[in-house]
Amino acid sequence: LESRLLTQPWASVCFGECALIAKACFGDTGYVLLLSDLSSVWYESADAEAVGQRSKELNKRLTAHVSSFLHRLANLMSPLLAGQPDPATSFSCQRTAGGLSLRLKSELSGLPFYWDFHCCPAPLEMVSRHLVRPLIRMSLALQHQVQELSSLLLQKDAEIEDYRESGAALSRDRLRTEPFQEELFLQSFMARVRRAGTSSPSAC
């Protein structure tokens, strides 16, 4: 499940009043959930035995196979992670001494359905594998892309200047652009990145 979790994208979600990023993977024998507020990272990995025991504690009126509970959890979490939360499903989030508690409330077969995710701090290797390394790889890829695009814009400016010196003129003046200035562009870009960083998800 954790290997499959690596292929899942992070999603920005709201659990009650908690704004977090999350990813999850559900199977027939368990699930893995990963949450972060970009300051801390929490996770829960539950196997079939843990799911069966918790389902008995939380849903005494419901009797179903563990795989049915897991399938229901996947169906409830998937719309939320896809940015289309089901209004019939409610979530609440609370910080605890040992981690993060996430409570889900919905229905199953016409009866109330409850679930508690008990998340503990994620180990360093898990944080590195799912968050740090992908971010660094993406950052390096974007830097390389910016360099290539900057080089292409400078070549285009040189090409346009050559046309002008040869006597070419624009038929529509509104299409005229100023020469690309790489240093000013990077300064403006970094300023926007810093402003965006101030609106990161906040924990509950």
From TrEMBL:
Chief location: nucleus
Keyword Zinc among UniProt keywords: no
Keyword DNA damage: yes
GO BP terms, alphabetized: double-strand break repair via nonhomologous end joining
Gene Ontology molecular function, alphabetical: DNA end binding
Domain XLF-like coiled-coil region, residue spans: 123-171
Compartments, as annotated in UniProt: Nucleus
Cellular component GO terms held in the UniProt record: DNA ligase IV complex
Keywords: DNA damage, DNA repair, DNA-binding, Nucleus
Gene3D superfamilies linked: DNA double-strand break repair and VJ recombination XRCC4, N-terminal, Helix hairpin bin
Alphabetized InterPro entries for the sequence: NHEJ_factor, XLF-like_CC, XLF-like_N, XRCC4-like_N_sf
Domain XLF-like N-terminal: 9-120
Family that this chain belongs to: Belongs to the XRCC4-XLF family. XLF subfamily.
Name used for this protein in its record: Non-homologous end-joining factor 1
Species of origin: Asarcornis scutulata
